[in-house]
Design goal:
Length: about 600
């Protein structure tokens, strides 16, 4: 049986002496990172090149190792607090609302306590005084920055799935910027006081594979001014001023379906939602992983169809659909029955007479994998680095979106591309990538490196899509079970960190001969509870390693004011609207053992 027990965040052992011991025990590279004295491969040094994915089944040829990029100054955090600390994390307070029906207002709720999980190894007494920090970083996932006026969006399927349209989604950029502000304000890692090395996004950074959304994402992460509006620069042209009761109309007196549930009327909402915002950008390095919404139109259709590209930039938008037609199209999508989008294309053609006019906009065009890579490599988006955010020119040349990078002296990071170019929202990887991953893990063991973190968008349970890549028709695809087996054969793998499910879920995976690792899945930043996660790795010096996971919300206050339409006020409203969104699931926060945890492992 799993061993799970709660521990108070402010345990008596968290004394000043212990904090000083932890700080002094930080490894040399981590300490130098705090002062900006060295160029690290954990965000400001080298990315380890991928193999090419052009081979059908044989090993991929490794491109030349990229040279060093100019050093960026590492994050200069405020003076490290006495560890552990809770302020600014869900260990201090979590947004919550009183029980009841109808629209509910958020406020400060009770904290989520830390839970020790001994499923894979026993937590030994006295480890608090022995442990030293190996690495600390932040995971963002499923930001879903949404161009809410995009013609290809299928809001009219709202009655079929809550993910088709959300009342809060026009504020996704404000929410993402507020999340960046939260990370910038963190006083190091909550448990160890280690400086944070980097942020990793685990995919679905955009929502509809649109160039407009990609631009907003890169500016939110690296800093810049963002106007989350396409089409007519003077006004909003989406479903929220359509007069259709299916959608919340914040500015209008219309008694739409959401107002009947208690949603407020907010004068000036739509003008505020498309107004310019400013992101300070992260003040520490960040890396990027690709998700299905970044790679596929609608998050599920194989790219490359000229009809979809033309429709995306055109002047017609479908906003309503009979329920029977909606059910048929969505049932087909769920089964993966329309990976190339032919049924979706036929639907749009059949509904041409029922579409509404919108202002055409070339910025809504879909981006290709090569354009995704080049946008990350654009110096305008480098911020604190690294240049390319994990991706290199070697990725562009090979047509790959996976890579390895140095997290710390004895920790390697591996970012995978689990999207299937053949279509459908579930994932898999090709043989070339699987072979590259196995070589990378073996080389890591051979070189004596002790720990590995694997990042991807899809979870092990959502990698069941073995549809062939149309660009590599002779190459097999491999699912979550095969990936679990491969990772389980390597004792230095600590964790597989991912998203996609929009839910907090931490799963132990026990392998042969005592090998084991944790799969850490984190909730999205578009659906409530809108969380990111801090992950810390420590050596307990007793034959075990601990991974500490601490969930964080954006910097916006829990309580909202419907008259506050500032950037911060919109971010607070983004959270409250997501809490009240019809069809939203409170279970996305997971159980206590999926939230703030200490995950214990045997040391390799």
């Amino acid at each position: 049986m799993p061993r799970i027990r709660s521990v108070a965040d402010t345990a008596a052992s968290a004394t000043a002496a212990r904090a000083a011991s932890i700080a002094s025990a930080l490894d040399r590279r981590t300490f130098l990172a705090a002062s900006g004295a060295v160029s690290l491969t954990a965000g400001i040094g080298y990315a380890l090149g991928p193999g090419t994915s052009s081979a059908a089944a044989g090993p991929a040829a490794a491109p030349p190792a990229p040279g060093p990029v100019p050093a960026a100054v590492s994050r200069r955090a405020p003076a490290a607090p006495l560890a552990p600390y809770t302020r600014g994390t869900t260990l201090g307070s979590v947004a919550a609302a009183p029980a009841g029906a109808g629209y509910r207002r958020l406020g400060d709720g009770p904290a989520w306590q830390r839970v020790v999980r001994g499923d894979l190894a026993s937590a030994k007494s006295g480890r608090e005084g022995r442990r030293t920090a190996l690495a600390a970083f932040v995971q963002f996932t499923d930001l879903h920055l949404v161009d809410v006026q995009h013609p290809l969006r299928y809001e009219y399927l709202r009655s079929q799935t809550a993910s088709a349209w959300r009342p809060q989604e026009s504020l996704s950029v404000a929410g993402a910027v507020s999340l960046v502000e939260r990370v910038n304000a963190l006083r190091g890692a909550p448990v160890t006081a280690s400086p944070l090395h980097f942020v990793m996004t685990t995919g679905d950074n955009t929502d509809n594979n649109a160039k407009s959304e990609l631009d907003w994402f890169l500016k939110a992460m690296s800093g810049g001014r963002i106007t989350p509006n396409t089409g007519d620069p003077r006004r909003y042209e989406g479903v929220q001023d359509s007069g259709l009761k299916l959608y919340w109309h914040p500015d209008a007196a219309l008694r739409d379906a959401d107002k009947q549930l208690g949603f407020p009327r907010v004068h000036g909402f739509l003008d505020a939602a498309i107004a310019e915002l400013r992101s300070p950008g992260l003040n520490l390095p960040w890396y990027s992983t690709v998700g299905n919404h970044d790679a596929l139109p609608g998050g599920c259709y194989a790219p490359g169809d000229s009809f979809f590209a033309d429709f995306a930039v055109g002047g017609r938008k479908l906003m309503e659909l009979p329920d029977s037609a909606g059910k048929a199209i969505w049932d087909n999508v769920k089964k993966g029955g329309d990976p190339r989008g032919q049924a979706f294309k036929d639907l749009l053609k059949s509904q041409a007479r029922h579409m509404r006019s919108v202002t055409p906009d070339e910025s809504r065009a879909p981006f290709t994998p090569a354009e995704y890579l080049k946008a990350h490599l654009d110096p305008a988006h480098t911020g604190p680095g690294p240049h390319g955010h994990g991706y290199t020119q070697a990725n562009v040349d090979a047509g790959t979106q996976y890579y390895a990078f140095r997290v710390a002296d004895d920790v390697l990071g591996i970012s995978l591309d689990t999207t299937d170019p053949g279509g459908h929202y579930e994932g898999s990887i090709g043989t070339a990538q699987l072979n590259w991953l196995e070589r990378t893990l073996k080389d890591n063991e051979k070189n004596g490196d002790s720990h590995v973190l694997v990042f991807s968008h899809h979870t092990s349970k959502t990698m069941r899509n073995l549809r062939q890549d149309p660009h590599h028709p002779g190459e097999a695809r491999h699912g979550g079970d095969e990936l679990l087996a491969l990772l389980g054969r390597h004792s230095n793998v600590l964790a597989w960190v991912n998203g996609h499910s929009h839910k907090n879920d931490i799963t132990p995976h026990a392998g042969p001969e005592g090998r084991s690792f944790w799969e850490i899945s984190t909730a999205s930043h578009v659906d409530f509870p809108q969380l990111a996660r801090v992950i810390e790795i420590t050596d307990n010096h007793d034959g075990t390693v601990s991974l500490f996971t601490t969930l964080i919300e954006s910097a916006a206050p829990h309580r909202t004011d419907f008259t506050d339409l500032t950037q911060t006020g919109l971010a607070a409203l983004y959270r409250e609207l997501s809490f009240n969104a019809p069809g939203s699931r409170a279970t996305l926060s997971g159980t206590p053992g999926d939230r703030n945890t200490e995950l214990v492992l045997r040391k390799a």
